[in-house]
Amino acid sequence: MAREIERKFLLADWSWREEVERSDRLVQGYLNEEGGASVRVRHNGRQAFLNIKSRTLGISRDEFEYEIPMADAERMLDHLTCGPVIDKTRHFVRRDGLLWEIDEFHGANDGLVVAEVELEHEDQAFERPDWLGEEVSHDPRYYNVSLVKKPYSQW
Question: Known catalytic residues?
C-alpha cells in the first residue's frame, strides 16, 4: 500500500526562489465530493495523473497515483470535475537531501504559497530552511481539496 507522509508550511520570505531547480505549471481538478477518498486528475502539460488519497487530513495518508493519457486528463478536467480546477506553479527545491515542492497558487487562490516535503516516516527529523514559516500540516484550509470549495481569496 502506498503511503504519503507529507508536511506543509507557509513561507517566511521569498529567498527560496534562488534555490529553484525547475518549475511546472499544474492544473488539477477533483472528480468526487464525498466518500473516504479524494480522486483528482492533474497534468503539467507533458504528463497526466489520476491520484487517489484517503480523506484523512494530517501528515500521513494513503495515496495512489497512476499515469494516464493527456487527452483523458483534459477531457476529465473539462467535463467531470466537481467545482473549479486548481491552477498553480510547483517549484522544486532540493535541500539537505529532501525535495521541497513549493506551490504558488493562481486564480481564486492567488497569493497563497505553500511548501511541502515528503518524509520517510512521521517523526523524521529535518533541517528547516530559513525561508520556512509556520507549519500548516493539520489545518484543512491548506489542502487542495479544501481550496476548491473555499478558495484563499474567500478567507
Answer: 30
- What Å distances lie between residue 58 and 75, 84, 94, 95, 137, CA to CA? 31, 24, 23, 23, 6
> Backbone phi, then psi, for 18, in 5-degree steps?
-70, -20
Count of beta carbons in the 10 Å neighbourhood of residue 143: 18
User: How do residues 97-113 score in pLDDT, each as one tens digit?
Assistant: 999 999 999 999 999 99
Strand runs labelled E in the chain: 3-11, 20-30, 37-43, 48-54, 60-68, 86-95, 98-105, 113-118, 132-135
CA distance 19 to 42: 25
Name the strand (E) or helix (H) holding 15.
Answer: none
**CATH fold for the domain made of 3-154:** Hypothetical Protein Pfu-838710-001 (2.40.320)
